Fold this sequence. Notes:
This protein is α+β, with helices and mostly antiparallel strands.
Amino acid sequence: MQLWITTFTGLVALGISLYNFAALQGTPDVDVALPRLVTIEPRAPGGAVHFFLQPTLSARRKTESIEVITDAQLRLVPADVTGTRPEFYWLDSGDYVYDFESNSDHWEKSSDPRPILVSQDKPSLSTFNFNADKWSFGPGRYEGSLILHRSSGDPITARFCLLVSDKDVKAFDKSPERSAFGLRNDVPSTSAARNPGCYASVT
């Protein structure tokens, strides 16, 4: 009996060791958490629109492998079928920085589009700058998708929406070139509060 108990205990320990080894060798599952705030420049140079988005990319479980995000895409689809659909592409990465002296935000580029490494120990907080040439916002609802292509499997998609009012569009049109506008999804007094998953102007 003691021999069987010892053998069984050894097999269980071996099974656990093999499971842990396989888990460590596996590819990490990646979570994408969208931020509370997105920033847009509705009057970027050359008649373009810039859309800044900083998701948190993290691995769900610990492994010795590293996930590689090879590309990022942004899609915005107007709910109004007559609206023009923009064609965004990943322009660069960096940070949107607030300047106290001028009381304004400005974009500081840190890199061109490049692969992003994601592991459990080091979540990625890259801010993507997406550009759409020769386009402008109109009032209405936009269905958005952040699509992250990776080296180990199918793309990861995070969905959201934007709510743009007539008042917003008027403010966009009157603003100087490269003016930044923040849209949030967590302010109770805005239309975003009545539309879960949507970003809206806080003014």
